[in-house]
Each structure stands twice: as C-alpha cells, then as structure tokens.
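Revision sheet: structure tokens.
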Amino acid sequence: MGNITTTNGGSHRRRISNATRRSSHPLPPPPLTPHPEITAHQFLYPGPSQSQYPHPNPNAPIHYPQPQYHYPGGYYPPPPPPMPHHNPLHYPYPVMAPPAPYVEHQRAVTIRNDVNIKKETLQIEPDDENCGRFLVNFTFDATVSGSITIYFFAKEGEGCNLTPMKENHIAPVTVHFEKGLGQKFRQPAGTGIDFSMFEESELLKVADLDVYPLAVKADASSSNHDESNETPTPGNSNTNSQITQALFVKDKGEFRVKVIKQILSVNGMRYELQEIYGIGNSMESDMDENEQGKECVICLSEPRDTIVHPCRHMCMCSGCAKVLRLQTNRCPICRQPIERLLEIKVGSEE
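Predicted:
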C-alpha cells in the first residue's frame, strides 16, 4: 500500500506540475469595444489649412496651422499668424524703389551777351513829377550801344518779339543807351504805370496766355555797330537781346517787382537763363588746390562739374555723381529730390 500511495502521490505531483506549466502562458486580450463616433461640435471650427499659406520661396519660414482649443463656454479662435516681413512674395504689390536719376552730358559753349540786366536790381519807385505813377529802374552792363524797351502786359512771340496787350492803356517806352558797365536806368518821368488803372489780380499773376505784367527788353547791336553808329533795331539779324519778364507782388500795401525768368536771344537762338549755384568757383581755370569751395562736396578732391536739377546746385564731380545716383535721389546740398544730373564739359569752341 505504501508503494501505491507513493506512486499516486508522485502521479499527483506530476499532474500539478503539468497544470502549473500550462498556466504560465499569457491569456489572450479581451476584445476591444469600438468608441462611439464623435460628432462635430457647434462651436468647433476647422483650423486653417496649410494651403492657405503658400510658400513659393523655399527659404521662407513655414507657418503651420494653429491648434484649436475647445472651452466649455464656447470657442475662442487663436490670433491670426503674423504677416511675414522678410519675404516680399507675400505682398500682392511689391514696393518698387524709385528709378535712379539719369546723367545727361553737355558741352558748355561760350555765348557773348552784349547787354545784361541785373535782375536783382529791378524795382519800381514813385514818379515825383506825376503823383500816383511808378517808374521802372535797374542796373545793367553793356559792351555796345543799344536800346531798352519797357513793356507793361506783354506777350512773347516768334523771334523773341514782345507784343503789348494793353497798348491803349499804357504804351511801351524805348530808351537808347551807350556802352558801359554798371549803368543806371530810370524810366522817363510821365511814362510810368498807374496801378489804379488795372485790377489787382492782373498785376499779381501771369495771365493764361503767358502775358507778363512787366517785361524789359534790352537790344544790343553786334561789335560792328560801334563803327557804323547805326541805331540797333530789334528785328536785325545781327542784334542780340535779353528779355526780363516779371510780375508785381504786394508787400505791406506797396507793390514791388518779382522777376520770373530771363531769356537771351543770340543770332536767332533762344536761351532761357538759369542760375547755377557754385559754377563760379568750379569753372575757373587757375584753380588752387589749397583753396576751398571749388572741389566736390563728396570726395573733396575733384573739381565740380555736375549740376543737380531742378535745384541747380553744382556740387559734385562726375564720378561721385554716378555713384550717388544709385544710392539716393536727394541733393547733397539742399536735400531736394533729384530729377536729373547734368555734367558740364568745359572746353574751347571748335
């Protein structure tokens, strides 16, 4: 009986060992229950897609869609992404830089002006012999003899001829002169203008047909006029003339003259005179290297030969002007916008 017990006990032990061996394998996982389908919330909006932010430039920063947040009380959209500042392709209309002013080249030639009216001296003064009338006076230089004609309300025509538009009210006055520098001109007494005869608006502006309230024409003969002693005529082909056109301005109840333009007619060619600031020093042939005021304001070494328009400052050399036009469009003297640059080549006539 002891053997059977022993055998049975051993057999029992083997069965327990087999059961323990089978229970060591992991059990299969339970089946997964599918989650219920989530419906769209009425306050939940789709976020921006990446197609709304095109990036044609591969080096441009990429803006990813912003995450969406759902709060119990409602949905608050996140702030929009900032606009790019370094990629011009994001702007519908790119900002274009203003074009650089072009450089125009001209060769300066010498024109002989036989008579010159100094426009800064042109003024009017009361006529002592005729109350209420005013006379024109100024200073002029003349290398030959000639004549000066005073026009009131005149229009310039062909060949630099002046036509009076109100001759029935006040007629032109012509006075002859001899050659000489620094001469004083004064309109003859009794021939001046009476401002009360005209509307104030006519005196203070240029009319629509370019009729100037005041025009002074100085006619000078050529050099052979001194030998012939002939009286110069404005229509003569060998006569040079200068026209000064002006209007009146009222200052503290009194009228004074304001020059608008000066015109030079030489051998049938018409030139409009314009002052160039700085050309007097830079064009001198005996330029001293140690003397200041004649060199370019940028490099401070080369002479000035380039004019800035429309301010007419001659302040740069040609080399600095070509570099400056690509960097800024402002005059280095007055900071006004530059429309064009005019390079002057000074040389003798051929």
